[in-house]
Specification:
By secondary structure, the protein is an alpha+beta fold. It has twelve helices and five strands. Helix 4 packs antiparallel against helix 5 and helix 9 packs parallel to helix 10. The protein is elongated. 21% of the residues are buried.
């Protein structure tokens, strides 16, 4: 764009003198060689786990023999060892530990220290122990894998949500704040080149001041949208109403927000959760509903706080949205889970959308409800 080129040229002109005075080492950072990472072969951790399990089982075998434990008691202790190995080690090491434990049982069974089992029931017990150990090892290993996959999925969603938020902020800064700052710089440069010749200098300076105040207001609105310290001292209803008013003015959208009968003191976790749900729901309405108006309602009962955001737009199918992995709905649902709340969506194509959030809250003796007024 021409405006971007002008701003870049101005910045280059002003910084060319400063850059030329820098010492040589400050202009180009020295080359740093990449560190070579050494990988530990996977065989050695498995060998260490298997060796540790074997030593533990052999030591336990000696203790059981000295204390004259029977095969059933010894097998139970061996199962505990195998479970611990499965919990902290890999499936291969737990498999190896199960085989070693079965051999130790065969070594303890009468006649002792011979690996020859005379009683068929002892043989059945050893086989049952080996089978049970393998099943337990497999189940524990599968549960560990599922937990790791779940954690990876949560981490991926968190990272994806952060990237989406950063992308939205970057677009807002570039397409709105950046462009307006560019025009402001151009206007200031015009005033600087010809400060006295222009007859309308004062009016142009007033226009620059108006643009600066508008940019400042938008930057403050964006900052408060990211984090609003006013939640701590103004209360949830006032901050939500202010956000809806500022967001509506910024997006040329009419947002009718009303609150009723809220308690004077609300836990910060609930306040922040409902504020983020309102933000996400209003953003979705502005982006996807196809209409320029929506309504928000916030009220409290004796044991719950309720929030609804509704519009009369194009609507959508909630099941398809959930299966599609929409970040907005997932973020709202996960936030409400943290405060034991519930989220429900009433939407159909061409029939509008209503987002309903409910959080349990009990009024204590030191928290009195506000009068039943609408704000």
């Amino acid at each position: 764009m021409a405006a971007d080129q002008v701003v870049s040229e101005v910045l280059r002109t002003r910084t060319r003198g400063k850059m030329s005075s820098l010492p040589p080492f400050a202009k180009s950072p020295p080359h740093q060689p990449a560190r070579q990472r050494t990988r530990t072969p996977r065989f050695w951790p498995l060998a260490a786990q298997s060796l540790g399990a074997s030593l533990a089982l052999v030591s336990l075998t000696v203790v059981c023999y000295q204390l004259h434990f029977n095969v059933a008691t010894t097998a139970l202790l061996f199962v505990i060892v195998v479970v611990l190995v499965s919990r902290v080690g890999s499936f291969v090491s737990s498999l190896f530990a199960s085989i070693v434990a079965a051999l130790c049982l065969a070594h303890l069974a009468p006649p002792a220290f011979s690996f020859r089992v005379d009683d068929p029931l002892d043989g059945v017990a050893i086989v049952a122990f080996l089978t049970t150990s393998l099943i337990i090892s497999r189940l524990v290993s599968r549960v560990r894998n599922q937990v790791q996959e779940a954690l990876s999925s949560v981490s991926y969603r968190v990272i994806e949500a952060e990237e989406k938020g950063r992308e939205r902020i970057a677009k807002e800064l570039h397409e709105n704040i950046g462009q307006r700052l560019t025009m402001l710089v151009l206007e200031i440069e015009k005033l600087k080149r010809d400060p006295l010749a222009a007859v309308d200098t004062l009016s142009r300076m007033d226009a620059v001041l108006t643009q600066s105040l508008g940019i400042l207001a938008d930057v403050q609105a964006t900052a408060h949208e990211l984090f609003s310290p006013r939640l701590e001292y103004l209360g949830m209803a006032a901050v939500m109403s202010s956000f809806c008013r500022d967001f509506g003015a910024q997006k040329k959208m009419e947002i009718d927000f009303k609150s009723n009968g809220l308690p004077r003191v609300v836990p910060s976790a609930i306040t922040l959760c409902l504020f983020r749900v309102l933000q996400e729901a209003v953003h979705n309405a502005a982006k996807h509903s196809g209409v320029r108006e929506c309504a928000g309602r916030l009220w409290a009962t004796s044991d719950e706080i309720h929030l609804t955001v509704s519009d009369c737009g194009v609507g959508f199918d909630p099941e398809i949205a959930r299966r599609g992995g929409g970040l907005g709905l997932n973020n709202m649902q996960e936030r409400l889970k943290l405060v034991k709340g519930n989220l429900s969506i009433d939407s159909q194509p061409q029939r509008g959308t209503t987002i309903y959030a409910c959080v349990p809250f009990s009024l204590g003796s030191d928290t009195t409800a506000e009068p039943g007024r609408l704000s």
